Amino acid sequence: MHNPKKLLALFAFSLFWGGAFAQELSLYCEEDRPLQFYNSQGKLTGFTVEIVEEIQKRLGTKDSIQMVPWSRGVEMLNNNANTMLFTMARTPERETQYQWIGPISSISYGLYAKANADIKIESIEDARKIGLIGVYRNDIRDQTLTRLGFNNLDRANSNISSFKKLMIGRINVYADSKMGVASLAKSAGYQLSDVKMVFHLFDSQLYIAVSKNTNKNIVSRWNDALEDMKKDKSFQRLQKKYAIE
User: Fold this and answer.
1) CA 75 – CA 238 distance, rounded (Å)
2) How far apart (Å, rounded) are the C-alpha atoms in residues 186 and 70?
3) How many domains does the chain have?
4) How many angstroms separate the CA atoms of 217 and 63, rounded?
5) Is the Cβ–Cβ distance between 76 and 213 less than 8 Å?
6) Treating both helix axes as pointing N-terminal to C-terminal, what angle do 216-231 and 234-241 enclose, rounded to 10 degrees?
7) pLDDT tens, 98-132?
8) What pLDDT, in 10s, does the model give residues 197-232?
9) CATH classification of the domain holding 62
10) Which residues touch 89 (CB under 8 Å, ≥6 apart)?
11) How are beta strands 26-29 and 83-89 bridged, if at all?
12) Rounded CA separation 176/184 (Å)
């Protein structure tokens, strides 16, 4: 005969873990082609968006993704449990602030000038003297250059704003990724050929960031599902689809 107390304990245990894994999540991203963007039909898509959707499919969940300004996403991530934000560079400043799912991709950052600019930068020391450098407020470019002692940063609320400032001569260079500069130029009303990279800054890896007080088992299951995607090559197929190196 079954022990009623043991059955009750087992039932409570299953409810706890089932609830933990089925926990509703708040998923946020910013617009950053080709990682996450709205296509011509108005559908939210992109490399990381499709990864997140596939992970949820494998885990049997379907929480919606909201596109928000980066500062808003970071605020939600910092102040709420069960919250994810993507795609985020994993930096020393952020390491202990969040939990991490990934890596999703690698990214290379550089300083970009107008194509016809007579600018020569051969070192970080040169970059500190170049005049104003446009950066996206509070993201990896801002944080890294601030840590390196740059006092010539022009902080903007969007990459498009920095690009436009560059083209009208309000800043000397701006910091961007090789992955994003072509689509950013188009979004700002220009072409990739209108700018040139004049100095390589640094490389980083991109992750899905998870709020620190989110159940660790959720993070573990997402990481496991991501690893399964890499093993069965569905991850690589998405890399090819979006031309992610």
Assistant:
1) 29
2) 20
3) 2
4) 17
5) no
6) 80
7) 999 999 999 999 999 999 999 999 999 999 999 99
8) 999 999 999 999 999 999 999 999 999 999 999 999
9) 3.40.190.10
10) 107, 139, 140, 204, 205, 206, 207
11) parallel
12) 9
